[in-house]
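Page 37, continued from 36.
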């Protein structure tokens, strides 16, 4: 079974490879195609040979030919899902594309599975708690679990007290007066982003997102029926590359998705960068005659080091959809709670509110469970101990650097992004795993040559892991 997916990959029998297309010199009408995945050439050649006319039409060429010798990227061409092979598949074609985009993440997580439940493992894999709950968390949920009236667990509208408390907290954080009616409670940031996309995206719309991304952005965009357009962050500063974003905007761009403080780079985008992004999107919306929304994933807005303050593009761009979650601040990501917020400057707020409600009903992406809604005002006051987290960040940073690792200082989030001492970061992560250190390999989040460490690990794990980090790097010398 073969297919060409909208992000320009070819899928075959469970494997997918990026398709690299290059125009031949001299204005030739041929396009040459090469697969960069070793060992795929033969089936890939057969696939293209079979469909060369169709592929060619898709690319605005007469036909295509394969150049099996080519390696590396020349010109990546968006094939926008207009090719649909494999109609006999058991599952929806869209899900196959989503699976392709999730494959590196799932492979990595499944690879780590044997160590996940090991009591001796030092787990730096995900932003997961290593203690059962923060002080006061369980008592808060217990308090709100107790029914106070007969409709406590009934179907109904979201609890208005939750939205009021969230809007007051957001006003404190960002200095913007959000109307409680513009706070839509969701099942975490993931739910908020899916809801935002279902509310404003149509098939064929493009969503620009930044690489390295959070694992599920591409899947979310594909799931909303839109087309993902990837833009690389500036690799020396980890800031937004505004020129590259500008170049990626097209008449079909409907949304730009950013994440600050950023997972995995730890970067907080500076306020002036956000202001420049706002003017870029303003111009683009005016030129295209259609609003471009900015989806701002602010999952780590409370996880800030060194006295840094949270900056949101909502202060600059009226059409910002703000995404918040309690997964990080309360360190309890399996208890789903978050919200999507529209600033008071957002045009057509009433229409968006109504559309968000219908989008929630149409996609079954409804409000969080009742107890989480009732508990929200209290949960705003339960936050991870930032002083301890910063001490842990500093301890690990210092030890890694002393051992010879290259690692930059994250301004926020739970993560250290470390350069792998060998090119094959997957092999290095497997080496660490031999001594029960769980790290995340860069190929899971589009950062080849790096690995990520979550400092939600305990202090004890950090101390046990440091000698292993030292030993592992010394073996590479
Ligand atoms: C950048 C980013 N956005 C969103 C999420 C998802 O958060 P939630 O658990 O609230 O869905 C995460 C969680 O890891 C994240 O790192």
């Amino acid at each position: 079974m073969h297919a060409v997916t909208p992000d320009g990959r070819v899928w075959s029998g469970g494997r997918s490879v990026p398709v690299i297309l290059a125009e031949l010199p001299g204005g030739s009408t041929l396009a040459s195609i090469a697969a960069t995945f070793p060992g795929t050439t033969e089936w890939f050649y057969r696939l293209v040979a079979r469909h060369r006319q169709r592929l060619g039409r898709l690319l605005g060429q007469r036909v295509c030919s394969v150049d099996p010798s080519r390696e590396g990227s020349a010109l990546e061409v968006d094939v926008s899902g207009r090719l649909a092979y494999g109609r006999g598949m058991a599952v929806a074609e869209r899900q196959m594309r989503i699976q392709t985009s999730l494959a590196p993440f799932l492979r990595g997580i499944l690879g780590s599975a044997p160590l996940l439940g090991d009591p001796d493992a030092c787990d730096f894999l995900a932003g997961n708690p290593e203690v059962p709950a923060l002080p006061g968390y369980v008592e808060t949920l217990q308090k709100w679990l107790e029914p106070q009236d007969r409709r406590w667990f009934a179907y109904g509208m979201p609890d208005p007290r939750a939205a009021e408390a969230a809007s007051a907290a957001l006003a404190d954080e960002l200095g913007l007066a959000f109307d409680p009616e513009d706070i839509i409670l969701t099942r975490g940031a993931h739910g908020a982003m899916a809801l935002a996309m279902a509310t404003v995206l149509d098939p064929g719309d493009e969503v620009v997102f930044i690489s390295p991304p959070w694992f599920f952005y591409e899947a979310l965009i594909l799931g909303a029926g839109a087309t993902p357009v990837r833009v690389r962050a500036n690799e020396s500063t980890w800031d937004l590359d505004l020129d590259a974003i500008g170049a990626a905007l097209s008449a079909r761009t409907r949304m730009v998705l950013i994440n600050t403080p950023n997972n995995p780079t730890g970067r907080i985008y500076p306020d002036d960068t956000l202001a420049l992004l706002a003017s870029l999107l303003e111009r683009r919306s005016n030129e295209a005659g259609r609003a471009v929304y900015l989806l701002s994933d602010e999952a780590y807005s409370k996880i800030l080091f060194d006295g840094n303050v949270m900056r949101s593009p909502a202060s600059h761009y009226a059409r910002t959809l703000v995404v918040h979650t309690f997964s990080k601040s309360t360190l309890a990501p399996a208890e789903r709670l978050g919200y999507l917020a529209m600033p008071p400057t957002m045009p057509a707020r009433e229409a968006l509110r109504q559309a968000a409600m219908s989008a929630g009903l149409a996609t079954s992406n409804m409000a969080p469970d009742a107890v989480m809604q009732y508990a929200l005002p209290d949960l705003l006051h339960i936050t991870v101990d930032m002083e301890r987290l910063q001490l842990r960040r500093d301890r690990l940073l210092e030890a890694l650097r002393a051992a010879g690792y290259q690692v930059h200082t994250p301004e926020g989030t739970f993560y250290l992004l470390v350069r792998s001492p060998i090119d094959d970061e997957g092999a290095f992560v497997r080496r660490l795993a031999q001594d029960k250190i769980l790290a995340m390999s860069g190929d899971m989040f589009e950062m080849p040559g790096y690995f990520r460490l979550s400092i939600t690990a305990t202090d004890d794990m950090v101390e046990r892991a440091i000698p292993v980090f030292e030993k592992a790097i010394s073996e590479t010398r």
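The radius of gyration is 23 Å. Flag for discussion at group meeting. The CA atoms of residues 209 and 217 lie 8 Å apart.
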